[in-house]
Design goal:
There is one protein chain. The protein is of the alpha/beta class and 265 residues long. The chain folds into two domains: 4-91, Ribosomal Protein L25, Chain P; 101-261, SPOUT methyltransferase, trefoil knot domain (Alpha/beta knot). It is built from seven helices and 14 strands. It has helices spanning 46-54, 110-123, 144-147, 150-161, 176-181, 224-232, 247-261; strands at 4-10, 17-23, 30-32, 41-42, 62-67, 72-80, 84-91, 101-106, 127-132, 169-175, 188-192, 199-200, 212-216, 236-239. The strands form three sheets. It has a seven-stranded parallel sheet, with helices on both faces. The protein has a five-stranded mixed sheet with strand order 3-5-6-7-4, with helices on one face. β6 (72-80) and β7 form a beta hairpin. The two termini are 28 Å apart.
Length: 265
Amino acid sequence: MAACRRKITVHPSTKHVTVSLLPKVHVNIILFQPPEVEHPLARSDPRAVHLLEVLRRRTGDTFDAGLLNGPRGRGTIEEIGADFLRLSFVWGESPPSLSLIHVIVGLPRPQTARDILREVTALGVTALHFVRTDKGEASYAGSSLWKSTEWRECVINGAAQAFCTRLPEVTHGDTLAEAIARLPAGTSRLALDNYEAATALNPGNLPAGKPAAIALGAERGWSAAERDLLRASGFTLVHLGPRVLRTETACIAAVTLLKARLNWT
């Protein structure tokens, strides 16, 4: 779920105060599905609220806009109606391709998954696979995050934060073996492990310009069978030092190191 703004309402007759949460978009660019740009935008849409209340745009003003997985450009507010905004767009070039980084992570608790979806998307990875693991909490797979479109909203917020239109491939609920099978041939493979990894993560040892995969276990780590599978699938077990990190922190740190190896492309 995106972070929220609080709306405070004071009821004159009772003096009671009601606090409700409004969805908040985290954006440096406002993203649209291609069909949406052909129709007015409802004023209740979080993007319209952001334009009018946060950016304080008015009729005739422009803003940064993008088509999901398409070009960036400029939008113009042509009309502000009682319940809609009429917009026009001029499109430019598409942003650079995503980094050749694939992330596999054991399904974490929903709030952690939201953070990973948003922040790792902002870093520009190609794919993000949330997998069922032997030591993971099975109930996390049934979260409303995954049963609704909320996970996709987190991804879109991450892309918008990064001023990008491109979204990574996201899967959830597969097994570790199924996620590994999705990796392209020739991918360099690393797996974080706090217990049996003999060396620290050193992206300098990876071939430059080739896809890389980083795998992280669930909060309780990998099982012995999963370590055997990872090793048999060409993964090298590595660590991020002696400190035990939160899953989202380890994920961001590992991807950042891999991005540096790819010269931040």
